[in-house]
Amino acid sequence: MSRICQLTGKKANNGFAVSHSHRRTHKLQEANLQWKRVWWPQGKRWVRLRLSTKAIKTIEQKGLQAMAKEAGIDLNKF
Questions:
Q1: Apex CA 47: angle with CA 44 and CA 48, to 5°?
Q2: How far apart are the C-alpha atoms of 31 and 3, rounded to whole Å?
Q3: pTM of the full structure
Q4: Phi–psi pair at 42, nearest 5 degrees
Q5: Residue 63 in 3-state DSSP?
Q6: pLDDT of 47-76, one tens digit each?
Q7: C-beta separation of 59 from 47 below 8 A
Q8: What's phi and psi for 73, nearest 5 deg?
Q9: Strands, E, within the chain: which ranges?
Q10: 3 — phi, psi (to 5°)?
Q11: How confident is the model at residue 78 (pLDDT cuts 50, 70, 90)?
């Protein structure tokens, strides 16, 4: 499975690691992804998702149903 957040779509970013002498080498900045079991009240069950830590914080504010609707995801498949 690729390292992409299932709700926000966050993924790796290409960048440079810059040394003290200002040499630039390619660097891949991965998203901070976690496997998380989230309670889905409308479905009355737990849903296991691969989420970025930012998405976990946003779920606590908005709720899982609202986040899934914005992302266009059907939670019945998880």
A1: 160
A2: 7
A3: 0.83
A4: -70, -35
A5: coil
A6: 999 999 999 999 999 999 999 999 999 999
A7: no
A8: -110, 135
A9: 13-18, 24-29, 33-40, 45-52
A10: -85, 80
A11: confident
pLDDT tens-digit readout, 12-35:
999 999 999 999 999 999 999 999
> Could you tell me how many residues make up the chain?
78
Whether 75 and 40 have beta carbons less than 8 Å apart is answered as yes
Token reading at 33: 């992804």
Q: Say what the pLDDT of residue 47 is.
A: 96
Residue 55 · residue 64 · CB < 8 Å: no
Q: Residue 62 in contact with residue 71, Cβ under 8 Å?
A: no
The whole-angstrom distance between residue 17's C-alpha and the CA centroid of its chain comes to: 24
**First-residue to last-residue Cα distance in the chain:** 14
